[in-house]
Amino acid sequence: MTVAKGLEGVVACTSAISSIVDGVLTYRGYNIDDLADHASFEEVAYLLWYGHLPNQTELEGLKSELDRNASIPDELHQLLKINANRIHPMSILRTAVSALALYDEEAENNSQEANQRKAIKLTAKIPTIVTAFSRIRQGLEPVAPKAGLGFAANFLYMLKGEEPTDVAAKAFDKALVLHADHELNASTFAARVTTGTLADIYSAITTAIGTLKGPLHGGANEQVMATLESIGTMDKIEPIIQSKLDNKEKIMGFGHRVYKDGDPRAKHLREMSRQLAEQTGNKLWYEMSVEIEKLVVDKKGIKPNVDFYSASVYTYLGIPRDLFTPIFAMSRITGWTAHVLEQYANNRLIRPRAEYTGATHQAYVPIDQRK
Ligand SMILES: CC(=O)SCCNC(=O)CCNC(=O)[C@H](O)C(C)(C)COP(=O)(O)OP(=O)(O)OC[C@H]1O[C@@H](n2cnc3c(N)ncnc32)[C@H](O)[C@@H]1OP(=O)(O)O
Ligand SMILES: O=C([O-])CC(=O)C(=O)O
Fold it and tell me: What is this enzyme's catalytic activity, as reactions (predicted)?
């Protein structure tokens, strides 16, 4: 057997959703640069799910379905209250999404139509869960979703209790577009593995959220901000980064399994960070990030990934650090569910092999004779 550690280079399925070829990322054939500059998150969600960009009527239809499904059951508010201040928001999100299945009468209906409806329900409810949890742990009442605001603005509204500026809503919308899908990343693969057993979509998304949480994947964005905060000032960057590299520590937000010459999403987030730094008058996080990028590229030849500049962007938008990965999930839910739908439509159980390296020919010893 040939073992590809970490499945590097293994092509595990065909997919018509997103592709990375020669460092270029496309969703359904549209370059991410064009989508980031021109499309709204709702347009991108529609594109990922249905394979084409929506016309105006289709887009309005999706937006009103998202608005209609944005509230969460009262029992979930109780779950959030009991666990506020005790549990990481990603653990809450994972548990809350799993619990949503208990309140969905079509949770076990695996038809394509039901799963398309569930993709919309999940996408609509995740922002409500994340913001309700964030407010409850600050001792504040959750803010109910407001129809008509749009997905990105509604999240910021529910988080802060006031409607965001146009600039903030647009920047956040763009960040969501950039995170929506990414071929066979670890959490999407995990979702497809669960789907491959013909389990329900809530099980697949619960799997995906658990997988996104880790710091080598989506959890890196929170760790990037932790690094920036722990360094704190420009003069400490060089010695701290050098010592991390000397100790063979990973610098969070750098490196990628597929992109060896840079992540095409990072330049958009770098520019957004620059603009928000100027608008907020707080240039520290942006300037520190640029300096760290220079050092890591010079010393190690490794470039920033999507998580690196998203950390300062979210901080400039006033979002708490431990909500960064839930926000990633809030966008990636569209990609995950698109992949789940694609997997159901052309399913085969996903079951690779392992090369056994353990002991062999062991003789069974009765328990009273064991040392
Ligand atoms: C949304 C996302 O999931 S994007 C990725 C988010 N994750 C991070 O930012 C965490 C930091 N980065 C990493 O840990 C890795 O680059 C990963 C997990 C993204 C990719 O991992 P792999 O493809 O397995 O790369 P691997 O870990 O084998 O790295 C190859 C070499 O680059 C080095 N390297 C890779 N990333 C980094 C990093 N961030 N900092 C320092 N060195 C790094 C490794 O130490 C290794 O060096 P070596 O050959 O001298 O031992
Ligand atoms: O593709 C990956 O391995 C990780 C990543 O960048 C993403 O999920 O956006």
Answer: oxaloacetate + acetyl-CoA + H2O = citrate + CoA + H(+)
